[in-house]
Automatic annotation (TrEMBL):
<feature type="transmembrane region" description="Helical">
    <location>
        <begin position="72"/>
        <end position="90"/>
    </location>
</feature>
<keyword id="KW-1133">Transmembrane helix</keyword>
<feature type="transmembrane region" description="Helical">
    <location>
        <begin position="42"/>
        <end position="65"/>
    </location>
</feature>
<protein>
    <submittedName>
        <fullName>Uncharacterized protein</fullName>
    </submittedName>
</protein>
<keyword id="KW-0812">Transmembrane</keyword>
<feature type="transmembrane region" description="Helical">
    <location>
        <begin position="102"/>
        <end position="121"/>
    </location>
</feature>
<keyword id="KW-0472">Membrane</keyword>
């Protein structure tokens, strides 16, 4: 693979990692009885569901990007590797970060930023 293909694979893997971190952070807020008090309000629910929607849209863009610019085997290996590493990479973060709004906003924001950069190649 060329250097350009490696950089695209790294960007794709980074987006999959940020989406998986966001998804794992969001999964701790379901069912609603387990949500932090800040996420039980209407604004908190908007942040929770909005970050999920933004991350989902970013994953769709990443899928189109990978389909058009990466070899299929590289996409599978890159995405699979970061999906396996996600729980281990989330552990060092503090509980207040993961259980609050911050993780949802940070990880979905990273995914959206990478997805916007990927739009250039679709």
């Amino acid at each position: 693979m060329t250097l350009d293909a490696w950089l695209r694979l790294i960007a794709f893997s980074a987006l999959v990692l940020s989406a998986a971190l966001q998804g794992l952070s969001a999964s701790g807020h379901f069912p609603s009885e387990h949500r932090a008090a800040t996420l039980r309000s209407p604004a908190g629910a908007a942040i929770l569901y909005g970050s999920i929607a933004i991350t989902f849209a970013s994953v769709v863009i990443a899928g189109m990007f990978a389909w058009r610019t990466l070899p299929w085997y590289a996409s599978i290996i890159g995405a699979g590797g970061v999906l396996l590493a996600t729980p281990l990479l989330l552990q060092p973060f503090s509980d207040s970060f993961v259980n609050g709004r911050s993780a949802l906003l940070v990880f979905s924001g990273i995914a959206a930023a990478i997805a916007l950069a990927m739009l250039r190649y679709i």
